[in-house]
């Protein structure tokens, strides 16, 4: 049998020796970088000099690392040598294959040091940690908007330039966000591939499922640094914090409307265009936003996924649940600017304000400021008497 080599009988400067001992004998003269491999040090030094000796023969791309050049060349050749053994996925990058395989295994090796969040890749973890640290290194060149990830910055900049490069192949829908396009396409096929393990809820994307599951678990990992507000949704926290600082980075190019939420701006713009791109698959109802369509479809299905924590009340939309809960807690966040009236419902506030303005938008010859009053009045014409007494005559 061949005798195993003595790994210690080698030069102390060898990279193999250093890997076993943990020593890093190769140090950069310009910074604190140290490594166990001399070739790694050579590559590192190029970052200081700006030296990029490896050039692509097909374009202007240059790099300091030969492996990076090999990967880049595959963008020209279309070569994808790395294949998944579970599905048809192919890629030109070994690291991309490793990340893809975690979709099948469910492995999430990267953990947040501040909360229970785990993810499949380091870049997502870096973006997530900025929620806790408040770091926003990426800035908009057109306004004061700052964000913690480059994809959000790219989407935001499209609001200024009006760019919508992603188009639906089934209708005229266009968007500046690839994830929005994916969600939109599922509206055509009715596909909702992600299912809640606790109830019948299904959705078109994983982030919505994660947020939904927190309804069951009560988990609220994201906390406001200005008050006691907690939420189960990172984007909701970002929006909430704007209430404290008064930030409204999203502006309408047709009027003075400003918003703290990009989706609110998109919905607002449809007031000017009259666009209603979302169609109910069961009737002729159309709307300008997906949340309204989702709530409308529940009229057909009878689904009521949102439950009151104080009683048996259930509803098909979150706004109705919020209004209902105010009955229990007595919260009345909407004040009249003319008197001391307060209410927990924006529609009630609108009706109340007509007392001051004298506005009566609903007409027969009879005019009133209240839709319920108009409904009652119309019954005088048609003779409708829908309500019956349940008591017998003595």
TrEMBL record:
UniProt xrefs under Pfam families: zf-C2H2, zf-C2H2_16
All copies of domain C2H2-type, residue ranges: 26-53, 54-81, 82-109, 110-137, 138-165, 166-193, 194-221, 222-249, 250-277, 278-305, 306-333, 334-361, 364-386
InterPro entries per UniProt: Znf-C2H2_CTCF, Znf_C2H2_sf, Znf_C2H2_type
Keywords associated with the record: Metal-binding, Nucleus, Repeat, Zinc, Zinc-finger
Keyword Zinc part of the UniProt annotation: yes
Region of interest (Disordered), residue spans: 1-21
Chaperone recorded as keyword: no
Compartments (UniProt record): Nucleus
Protein's name in the database: C2H2-type domain-containing protein
Organism per entry: Cordylochernes scorpioides
